[in-house]
User: Fold these one by one.
Assistant:
Number 1:
Amino acid sequence: MLFDLKGNKIILASKSPRRHELLKGLGFDFEVRTKDVDESFSDSLKGADIPLYLSKKKADAFVDELKPNEILITSDTVVWLGNKVFNKPESAEEAVEMIATLSGRMHEVITAVCLTSLNTEKDGTSKQVVFHDLTSVHFAKIERADIEWYVNKYKPFDKAGAYGIQEWIGYAGIDKIEGSFYNVMGLPTQKLYVELKKFLNV
Ligand SMILES: Cc1cn([C@H]2C[C@H](O)[C@@H](COP(=O)(O)OP(=O)(O)OP(=O)(O)O)O2)c(=O)[nH]c1=O
């Protein structure tokens, strides 16, 4: 049963249509806020520390406009393989190369979520929780012609690792996953449900 938000309002600060869809799927009403946030990070960050850092950085960009009783959700997804992060590709060539590298291998998809609200008792401070979820994704060997066809048709330039598990490549090229499917798409919905409940103390 969907729990009561106790008069709080959820603000999803995300431009990602997948995140909008996933939070809708979880059953909550929410408002979307967007702005461009610099997504750069230090080379010294590895694995989960990257999306954890970036989800907080995204929260920092919105916290000044947050009102009491609003819960801000920000999130970041990275693809992690062999001690290397795969960001969004900048060209079709880069997208093809990324998928070719993922082909026939297992990689990890890590999504971090940051929940922020204003602390009503202590002025000027905010309450914040960050958590992450990790899914192992096993790609089958995918033929180059198939990769090129996918990139050309789906233009996955807005997706970490140059692919969408929810698109053709996920249907045809993913052998198995360990962990949450929705986490790969952009939000660890089950963990988010539990963390939101804890955050609101309900
Ligand atoms: C791996 C993978 C990623 N993605 C998407 C989820 C994210 O939208 C995107 C990773 O980029 P992010 O920087 O996490 O998010 P974003 O820039 O799209 O949105 P925001 O405004 O919240 O910062 O890749 C899929 O849709 N399917 C997948 O299988």
Number 2:
Amino acid sequence: MSAAEVHDAAPALAAFHESRAGVRGLVESGVTTVPPIFLTRTASPPLQQESPAAAFSIPTVDLSLPRPDAVALIRAAARSCGFFHATNHGVPAGVVASAVSTARAFHEQPRAARSALYSLEPGGGAVAYSTIPNAPLQQQEGAPLLPWRDTLRVRFGPWEDGEPDLGRLRPAACRDALREYHSALAGFGKEVAGLLSEALGVGAERLEEAMRVEGWLMACHYYPPCPEPARVVGSLEHTDPSLFTVLAQDGVGGLQVRRDGDGDGGGGEWVDVEPVAGALLVNIGDVLKVVSNDELKSVEHRVVIKSTQDARVSIALFFNPARRDKSDLLGPLPELVTPEKPALYRSFTFPEFMSSRREYGHSRSSIERFKVNSSQ
Ligand SMILES: O=C(O)CCC(=O)C(=O)O
Ligand SMILES: [Fe+2]
């Protein structure tokens, strides 16, 4: 984006954030066309190419299968499309359903109640509500400045000085339901870490021992209906920074993943991820791609807006390494480095990784710089 374009867009962007009401606020005020800050900034074709009717669906893994069978299915999924639907996952259906409906209730409560929490501070307090810009103004050449999406971020750690309470999160029922969902998912996350660890052939405990896997950041996304859905993006294409992410969603749909066209989890055609009732969707993130020495794939995904009528709700819980001090190095597990397959990445700390992420944006390039022989 040129300096002049940044200058031109800045007031509209500031006014949008000052409204503190998110994209939902625009929809409530009755917009019938999409404001320019949500539109692509190049003359390129519309954002959403029709996704092909390709016969492809995300694999489903029934976690009640005998463990070796579940591990084999997870290995196949994590090495190919990087995503799988987990069924019979042990998290009570009611806990998931009430988290999703409470996230919807948060975003649909009166404007004054939600705007009290509006904040763009990334590392801020435990709770923040905002439309998170796609990237700093200068990055993401040609992409829209804002997604058609509002997000309530709830942090469950790490806390230096004891856990702050989530008291600012209203309504209280929402706070309780998200807390309950988080505790239920903590157990599920450990289970997934064990299965992925076995899928890597390094023993069920290894990932947990090396990383201490914890889900700290919960993003409750709300994708309002849009008067011109094909002109906006709900979530720009990206890979997740996590070890892995667990997503719960309603039945509206809109998530798409990229088929592996370049052997590295990108470059192929976009396909729809049809919601599977009762399933939790797991995807591999960039940190696990590194730790696995590229045995597992962190695949690009995005969200398109499907509806002029229905809002979509999803909850992403990002599982990250809790071992993240300056002395805790991330890199390929030594067991996965062999003379035939030397380490593809140098070691780095989690803070180093997050700062690369801020600098290079939400795409694969943020881990490329840690590649052995990288020129950066
Ligand atoms: O809403 C979704 O389906 C995906 C959200 C997502 O990709 C993310 O939060 O990283
Ligand atoms: Fe994501």
